Task: inverse folding
């Protein structure tokens, strides 16, 4: 029997509650499809600060590096707001991503059929939304040098540098072209090439690479126009390729098209080696330990891990179908529109997902 080594990072806030639901669903499909999962649970973020005074203990990073995949819930809590930036929970996650070299952040944004009529946006706008944002994650303005703050005669000045090399652009663009090849063969690259030199290089490289993917239809949008088009007519997009800063903004905007942050998974990948799979939402400290969190983004992150990380496509399909079924059966958590629906807590929703798995 094939056995995978998966590191679990339940993190903070609602993290442990939703992780518990996810592992139960993974165990169910693992048994059904006859593969084994060996979990190794490690600390990151606030829980790691409490125990080791370090948001990313060495042993956590080491375990992640030698795993087949890493499944993370969420990190962070207002409790740590007073700490300096490099000591806060969020720096643990940033260092984990860079420590694993995860340069490609993949966020699928799909509207679940049962939720279309419950969207706060117009039904005709959201009904066909099914896109993926591919965001460069380890370069760009978040990491570029020089950066900092300087005292000058005229007061203080602060600066960051947006920089990309051809190597960094080529490798993320390749991920996006390959994904587009597997989907609707449409790729939109988002930049600001009318203003930024770094975007001009970005665009040149993407065009250069497109000759290797003649079946993929490529277009380019300036980021300001793209932000508008996403709201105006989101179904024009299939795969979106963009850099770190623009991707941060565009992917949150795209996420809202689906109505709830509690439904969206993500993956952060490199070419070889373990990927990191996590929900798009944060640790939701305001609802932690109340058993009301929506565990579906976490279960869908587990599905992405099974599909992309472990290549267990049937198991991944089952998890996604089970989510589709609970929604169609009228079950909701309280972050979703609940008018006339059956509202469940986190644990009850987990049980309902398991029942849908068993009914498949
Ligand atoms: P981060 O900085 O970690 O991204 P954030 O400040 O953006 O965190 P979240 O933790 O994502 O915020 O929470 C934003 C809001 O969405 C909160 O009101 C939270 O309760 C709600 N929320 C987030 N995730 C869920 C979930 N899985 N189920 C229900 N509500 C959620
Ligand atoms: Mg957030």
Result:
């Amino acid at each position: 029997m094939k056995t995978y080594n998966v590191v679990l990072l339940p993190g903070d806030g609602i993290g442990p509650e939703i992780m518990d639901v996810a592992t139960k669903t993974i165990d169910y499909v693992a048994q059904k499809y006859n593969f084994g999962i060996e979990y190794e649970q490690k600390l990151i973020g606030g829980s790691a600060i409490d125990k080791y005074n370090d948001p990313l203990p060495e042993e956590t990073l080491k375990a992640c590096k030698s795993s087949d995949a890493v499944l993370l819930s969420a990190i962070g809590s207002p409790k740590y707001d007073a700490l300096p930036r490099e000591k806060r929970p969020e720096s643990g996650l940033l260092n984990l991503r860079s420590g694993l070299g995860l340069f490609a952040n993949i966020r699928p944004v799909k509207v679940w059929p049962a939720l279309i009529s419950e969207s706060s946006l117009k039904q005709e706008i959201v009904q066909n939304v099914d896109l993926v944002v591919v965001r460069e994650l380890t370069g760009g303005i978040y990491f570029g040098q020089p950066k900092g703050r300087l005292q000058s005669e005229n007061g203080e000045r602060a600066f960051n540098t947006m920089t990309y090399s051809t190597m960094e652009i080529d490798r993320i663009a390749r991920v996006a072209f390959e994904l587009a090849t597997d989907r609707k063969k449409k790729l939109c690259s988002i930049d600001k090439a009318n203003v930024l030199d770094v975007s001009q290089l970005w665009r040149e490289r993407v065009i250069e690479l497109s000759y290797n993917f003649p079946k993929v239809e490529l277009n380019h949008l300036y980021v300001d126009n793209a932000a508008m088009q996403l709201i105006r007519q989101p179904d024009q997009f299939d795969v979106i390729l963009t850099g770190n800063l623009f991707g941060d903004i565009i992917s949150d905007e795209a996420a809202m098209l689906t109505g709830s942050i509690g439904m969206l998974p993500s993956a952060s990948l490199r070419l070889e080696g373990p990927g990191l799979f996590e929900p798009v939402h944060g640790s939701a400290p305001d609802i932690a330990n109340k058993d009301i969190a929506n565990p579906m983004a976490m279960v869908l992150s587990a599905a992405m891990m099974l599909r992309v990380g472990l290549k267990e496509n049937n198991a991944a399909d089952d998890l996604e179908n089970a989510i589709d079924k609970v929604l169609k059966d009228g079950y909701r958590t309280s972050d979703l529109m609940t008018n006339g629906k059956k509202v469940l807590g986190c644990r009850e929703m987990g049980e309902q997902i398991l029942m849908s798995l068993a009914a498949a």
